[in-house]
Every structure is written in C-alpha cells, then in structure tokens.
Write a structure and sequence with these properties.
- The structure is a single chain.
- The radius of gyration is 16 Å and the shape is globular.
- The chain has 7 helices and 10 strands.
- By secondary structure, the chain is of the alpha/beta class.
- The protein has helices at 15-26, 61-64, 78-83, 86-101, 123-130, 137-153, 188-199, and strands at 7-10, 31-35, 48-52, 70-73, 105-111, 158-164, 166-168, 176-179, 186-187, 208-213.
- α1 (15-26) packs across α7 and α4 runs parallel beside α6.
- The chain has a single domain (7-213), classed as Rossmann fold (3-Layer(aba) Sandwich), CATH 3.40.50.
- The chain binds NADP nicotinamide-adenine-dinucleotide phosphate.
- Residues 11-17, 36-37, 40, 54-56, 74-77, 109-111, 139, 143, 164-166 line the site of NADP nicotinamide-adenine-dinucleotide phosphate.
- NADP nicotinamide-adenine-dinucleotide phosphate is lined by residues 11-17, 36-37, 40, 54-56, 74-77, 109-111, 139, 143, 164-166.
Length: 216
C-alpha cells in the first residue's frame, strides 16, 4: 500500500463519511465518492471526484474502480436493510470487480452490535441489540453477512472491518485505537479518523475489531 492511496468512498454523504472524506482530502488522498445526492457532500477540493449513483442501482464498477487503490465503505440504510441485505449484495459485486481492477484494500465500517465472524456478542450487547437497538437489527445482520463473506470468500483482498461504537456527532474525544475486546462510544469524527489510520495499517488486515479511546 502506498502512503497516499487513491480512495473510492461509499457513504461519503453520511455522518461518518462526511468527516472521512474531508480528512482524507486534507491528508493528500485523491478521493472518488459515489453518492445518490452529490449536493449533500460538504467537501470541495480539486482532488475530489463525485460520481452520482446508488449501490443498489446499475453501476459500472469497473469505471468506479479505475485508478483506485483502496475502497472505504461507510454505508447504511436501516429501513432498506430490514427488508434486504443491501450491503452484502453490493460487496459481493464489488469484490470481484476489485479483483479485476487490481484494487487490493477494503475497509468496511460495521457496528459494535454486529458480531465478528465466528464470535458471539457479550450478553449485555446482545440485550441492547434485541431491545433498545432493535430497529437496527437488519443493519447488524447485513453487516454480519458482509463479514462472513469477506472472511470465507475474500481473503485474497486486504480487508479490515471497523466495528464502530458511535454515540454522537460531537467534537473529538481523543484517538481511537483498535481493540478486539473493548469498544468505546466514539464520535463520528473520531471514527472517521480511525478509519483513515486503520486503512493504512497493514497489521489491521483481516481483522474485525472495535475501537477504544487511548487511556489518558
Ligand atoms: N450511526 C451510528 O451510530 C453507528 C454506530 C455504529 C456503527 N455504525 C455503522 O456505520 C455505518 C455508517 O453509519 P453512519 O451513521 O456514518 O451512516 P449514515 O449517516 O446513516 O449514512 C449512510 C450513508 O450511506 C449512504 N447510502 C445509503 N444507501 C445508499 C445507496 N443505496 N447507495 C449509495 N449510498 C447509500 C447514504 O447516502 P445518502 O446521503 O444518499 O442517504 C449515506 O452517505 C452503518 O452502516 C452502521 O452499520 C453506525
């Protein structure tokens, strides 16, 4: 991985994605964003390219991946994901296209209430998922299906999953670090910053960890 890979961003108009796109451009990356509504994107920059489209529409993935070194997915639509696994369907099309294009790296943002492949959530998180967070159940099941697919069928791709525990869009609370055992309630900007750092971290390849604030 080069130090400044060219990035394709999915979900760039979302709460994490807006911060991620800005941070990536500030750090010197070329960024292509696929957006259903390009006007929602707050960043403007000479190295930013915006392509209009939907992940469940008719996409030319080969054109989208042309010149791209790494893909970052921060997609979510809880209502649609209750009906069908939108993200899994998309990732199953994206990965073969990445192979064709020679795009090797992929970061996928899931949630802390989505279990990593081959693991079970701790009891307290299972209770949260099945009660107060119940309206997001489709999103968690979709995220888990993505992780299973990546783990079982895409180990030739340098993927990493961030099982984020986001709480608010407040200011930064510090630096999030990868953790297999702890998940902090972070802010969107800290999760976006974590995603950018983790994308460039070879030791994160084939992990589906959470993130936690560094102890002060
Ligand atoms: N929000 C949280 O508290 C939280 C906590 C933990 C984990 N997560 C995970 O992080 C992921 C991102 O969350 P977020 O809160 O940052 O996202 P968000 O604000 O809900 O935004 C979702 C993004 O996905 C895009 N999108 C949805 N359907 C699309 C489609 N068919 N084609 C193209 N783009 C589409 C949206 O585009 P539009 O602007 O066009 O709608 C938007 O950019 C979620 O999947 C979730 O699993 C979120």
């Amino acid at each position: 991985m080069t130090t400044h890979p060219s990035l394709l961003v999915l979900g760039g108009t979302g709460q994490t994605g807006q911060h991620f796109t800005r941070l990536a451009l500030e750090a010197g990356h070329r960024v292509r964003v696929l957006a259903r509504t390009p006007g929602k994107l707050r960043s403007t920059h000479p190295e930013l390219e915006v392509v209009q489209g939907s992940v469940d529409g008719d996409l030319d993935l080969d054109a989208l991946l042309d010149g791209i070194d790494a893909v970052v997915i921060m997609l979510g639509n809880a209502a649609a994901q209750r009906e069908r696994q939108v993200n899994t369907t998309f990732v199953r099309l994206l990965v073969p296209a990445m192979r064709r294009a020679g795009t090797r790296r992929l970061l996928y943002q899931a949630g802390g209430l989505s279990a990593a492949p081959g693991t079970r959530l701790p009891l307290v998180l299972r209770l949260v998922r099945n009660t107060i967070a119940r309206s997001y159940i489709g999103q968690h099941e979709d995220n888990e299906a993505v992780m299973r697919y990546l783990d079982q069928d895409a180990r030739d791709i340098e993927w990493m999953v961030h099982r984020a525990g986001i709480g608010s869009d407040g200011p930064s609370k510090g630096e999030l670090r990868r953790s297999s055992s702890r998940i902090s309630i972070g802010t969107f900007v800290d999760c976006a910053s974590y995603n950018l750092r983790t994308l460039l971290d070879d030791s994160a390849v084939h992990t589906a960890d959470g993130s936690t604030y560094r102890r002060r």
